[in-house]
Amino acid sequence: MKELPQTIFDVYALALPRGHGFGEQPPIGAWQSDDGHAFGVITRHVKSSTFGILVMGRRVDHVWSKIEEMTDLATEEEARLQLERGLSSGIPAVPMPANTARRPALYDLGKRQPSDVFSLLTNRSHHIAAWMLNQLYLSLPAPDKNWAGDCQTRNFHTRLWEAQLLASFREQG
Asked: Which residues of 7-40 are buried (b: 16+ CB within 10 A; e: fewer)?
């Protein structure tokens, strides 16, 4: 388990149902598993001062999924022990929920010809932007089945706008 930098946590938190909105249980720290396939936070209730944890893991299609949530832990040490257990390396990917289609990989073009702007993301100088766009895509609660294909081709800007809206709304809670 290693500490998760705030900037990366801010991106991963977009996958949470309320984004950065933790209400009366704000995070006091975030960590990720050594293999990077899970992350978790320790929270502290502002009134009762009890602790909690939230652990998220990657599904088989790389979308973040809640693995575990606990509240009312008496001490930070107890919360940290529970978090360490939840962030053990080698935990298998979360299976797909019933009646949920596997999300296509954003980098998989299939037989599509990418737009010029999407092709720019393959340049080494744009890898961080590509990673960020992929994280936003994986955070979308229910993108339509054409989202990835549209983003790769003629509707890149439309799909980028949708990802921007998700980030903005989730950031606002």
From this structure: eebeebbbbbeebeebeebebebbbbbeeebbbb
Domain for residue 56, yes or no? yes
Predicted confidence pLDDT, tens digits, the chain (173 residues):
999 999 999 999 989 878 888 989 999 999 999 998 999 999 999 999 999 999 999 999 999 999 999 999 999 999 999 999 999 878 889 999 999 889 999 999 989 999 999 999 989 999 999 999 999 899 988 898 899 999 999 899 999 898 888 878 877 76
Flag whether 154 is in a domain: yes
Q: Which two three-digit tokens encode residue 12?
A: 């991963």
Residues 6+ apart with CB under 8 A from 105: 61, 62, 148
| Residue that is written with structure tokens 């909690």 in the block | 52
Q: Which domain holds residue 69?
A: 2-86
| Block residue for tokens 């996958």 | 15
Kindly state whether residues 68 and 128 are assigned to the same domain: no
Domains in the chain, number: 2
Residue 101 CA to chain centroid, in angstroms?
Answer: 18
User: Do 76 and 126 fall within a single domain?
Assistant: no
